[in-house]
Structure formats: C-alpha cells, structure tokens
Amino acid sequence: MLKNLLEAKKCFKLVCGAGNEDVEEIKRLVYIYALAGCKFFDLSASEEVIDCAKEALKLAKINEACLCVSVGIKNDPHVNKAVIDYDRCVNCGACEAICPQGAIHYAKVKKIKCIGCGRCWKVCSRAAISYISEEKNLNEILSIIKNKKIDCLELHAMGTDEDEIFTKWQYLNDNFDGFLSVCTSRGKLSDEELVRRIKKMTEGRKPYSTIVQADGFPMSGGADDYKTTLQTVATAEIVQNENLPVYLILSGGTNSKTTELAKMCGIDYNGVAVGSYARKIVKKFVSRDDFWTNNRVVEDALQTVQPLVNTVIL
Prior knowledge:
By secondary structure, this protein is of the alpha/beta class. It has helices at 2-8, 23-35, 47-59, 94-98, 119-123, 138-145, 162-175, 191-202, 226-240, 258-264, 276-286, 295-313; strands at residues 11-15, 40-44, 66-72, 80-84, 104-105, 108-109, 129-133, 152-156, 179-184, 210-215, 247-251, 271-274.
C-alpha cells in the first residue's frame, strides 16, 4: 500500500515525533489525522507507541494505513532529551513557555513528551539546559516490530559520524525487507556532502525501495508561512536534481504552504511529512480531558486539520 501512496504523489505523512512517547497524545493525533485522510504515520521506536497508533486506527475504522518507525544516531536531535541543571536554573519559566510539546512544567522535564527540538536550550539565559542522547539498539527495535506489520524504517542521519550512520544503515539493509527511509538535512553538511551521503546510502538498493526525506530545517514547522518552509523546498530540489531512483518526501518546516511553494518551484515530490505544525494546530483539542467523550471536540479538531491534509491528498 505504501508504494501506491507514494506513486500517487498524494502521500500525507503525520510525524508524531521520533522522541515522542506520550501514548495518549499519539493515540489522539493518529485518530484525528486518520479521520482526515492521512494514511502514513511516523512513530517512535516504542512497542507501546506502535500499539496505541494501531488502536487509534481501529477506533477511526481505518483498515489500511502505513506505519513508519523512526530511529536515530547518537546526538541526532530527534532522539535527544532535555536535561535541566538545577544548580543553574532559576525557574524563570522561559523553557516551559516555549516548549511546543508541553514537556516542561515547573522546571521539570517529562521525558516521554520531549522531542529534542532545542527551543528550550535557545531561550535559557542561565545555560542550565543540555541534552542526552537516547538512541535505541537496532536489534531491539527490529525485535519489537517483528510482528507489528511495519511498512517503513526511517534513519535520521543528520550528524557527522558517518561510521555510525553507515553501520546502522547497513544493518537495516540486511535485516529489514520493507521500505527504508533516510531523513537528512544540510544543517551540518554542504550541498555536495548531502548528495554524496544520499548516493552512498541508496547505492545497491533496489530502485524505488528507498525514501529520501529531505529535511529542510528539522522540527521548525511551528509557523505557517512561506519562509518557514523555504528550506524544505530548497533541500528537496538538491535531491531531485540528482535523478535518483528514490521517492522524495518533503519535511522539516512543512506547513500548509509547502505544497504550493514546491509546485511553484517545480518540485516533483511523492509526499509531505508534517510534524511540528500538524501537532501545533490540534494541540488544544488533543489535550482536553473530554476528548473521547465530547463529539464536538473531535469534530472541531477534524475541521482544523482537514485543510492541511487536503493540501497534499487532493
């Protein structure tokens, strides 16, 4: 089914967050976006998260949907968790105010909600925030997904440790038969290095068995304007110009303007992955205590997300 979605070039992918392990939030996100027509969901490498996503699809009465599990390398932002040094912290509240996940409360980090976006670190005037990397063992992940019918594994390869990147990529090649996706950006790479990395990772793989997720600016899609999604489109163009036998998905700063700008720039994409912005616009609904008991909450949430999903699937 995933191949058909990609071939149709109308694939909307909901990114729940590689580091997001808040199962109740994810269940609600998947439920709403499934009702809106999303059929591809990106999840943390957690058995509980995968199971709650499947439960949400069942509740939404969606019989066919595709699941992607994301893994990362050490120090990749997607697998980082914030840590607060209480010797430095003055409890000013700046980190709590800016956290898009609501992962910080009274200067305490709720790890299951933290996605490693870095916003709290940027606003901390006391240098009290650092990050720890919580990448997971690939063998453990493969064991978890063995009987879960996972369609795709995605490796976040944004660091500079190429030995780790290619070792993990080769391991996935050797041990997983489904689609492999590489999510990478220009953050620490030149354009030439980005292309070289992607070519090396796709070399030897069967044509169109690989997804390249062109991550313009990781976890930056909070705003809904052209500037926010500009780097997404620019990174996608670099990949497209290489004419590789891969599927191209736009990510990193994606919002409701992404498809319009991509078409204006002649980007021939297969799908769009939306994370930060998709979660932001529905946050006030999925955080309500009466989400499952008040039909109006679900209806309002659906009306809010439907236009975003429609920019891709229609």
